[in-house]
Amino acid sequence: MKKLSPHERFELEFLPHIEALNTFAFHLTYNEENAADLVQETYLKAFKFIDKYEEGTNAKAWLFKILKNAYINDYRKRNKRPIQVDYEEVSGYHDGDDAPLASYFDLREELFDHMMGDEVTAAINSLPEDFRTVILLCDIEDFSYEEISKIIDVPIGTVRSRLFRARNMLKEKLNNYAKTMGYKDHRGGHDDQEISE
Amino acid sequence: MDQFNFTEIRKKITSFLDHDMSPEDQDSFLTQIQKDPNSQNELIRERLIRSKIRENIHRPHLSPGLVDRIKNKIVR
Asked: E strands of chain A, at which residues?
């Protein structure tokens, strides 16, 4: 099989992920212009180190890792934005390997019929950065725990526990939104219902 | 199904949707869930909620000319 030139590989394997990277960058920086700069920086770095990339492997995960590192090492320092953690919000959060699996089981799909889209974005963007990141990588981009672990450089158990906390926070925010909109849950409050007898 | 089994099914659904299962566990989960319509409904519902979140998140348009700017910066 013909070996691709770096430029061909760049176009065929890297550029198709630009929209996903742009969405991720936007939700890290909260700004479209800064997101575009971060994406550009990511691609320039990817090209510079293209010889480190193994052809045919996970280009998307590799690009996301570069973007996340560029955000931490360059963008955040340049913009003097320290990590912001709301300790009230993350109380009880731990990075152990034994956290339960996370889910959205208690959310109702009807809730989304009353949303314009902005509410989901606002709820995700209001999460502390570490939690927002795992939601974006897992629930929006569909990366596996292993891929996320490599992208953000933390053990898989930490990915799992962050995701658990993040989904709970997101669920709470969306449910609060539903309450402010006067949405009522007509199920009769049976979160502990049994699936089958 | 008792509460313990219900919690276990929910854990498995999450694990399945998060690609956190071995291929063998996936097969066994899918066989198990086929026999239980209520569990199937839970899987469908959890999947639907996730797709709603995915559909509703803001995805900004690419800045015009971004791809060309990137290509131009790569020295040939």
From this structure: none
CB-based contact A64:A21 (threshold 8 Å): yes
Could you tell me which of A34, A35, A26 has the C-alpha nearest to residue A125?
Answer: A26
Q: What is the pTM of this model?
A: 0.83
Q: Taking residues A64-78, report their average pLDDT.
A: 88
Q: Which two tokens stand for residue B59?
A: 């995805």
Report, in angstroms and rounded to the nearest whole number, the Rg of chain A calculated over CA atoms.
19
Using CA atoms, how far apart are residues A72 and A77, in angstroms rounded to an integer? 7
Contact B10 A103 (CB under 8 A): yes
**What confidence score (pLDDT) does residue B1 get?**
55
Count CB-CB contacts under 10 A for residue A75. 19
> What is the predicted pLDDT for the residue at A175?
85
End-to-end Cα distance, chain B = 64
Torsion from C-alpha of A116, A121, A123, A124, nearest 10 degrees: 150
- The amino acid present at B13, given as its one-letter code, is I
B37 vs A143, A188, A197, B21, B32, CA distance in Å? Answer: 28, 21, 11, 21, 10
List of chain B residues whose C-beta atoms are within 8 Å of the C-beta of residue A39: 66, 70
B contacts of A145 (beta carbons < 8 Å) = 18-20
Say if A194 is an interface residue toward chain B (CB within 8 Å): yes
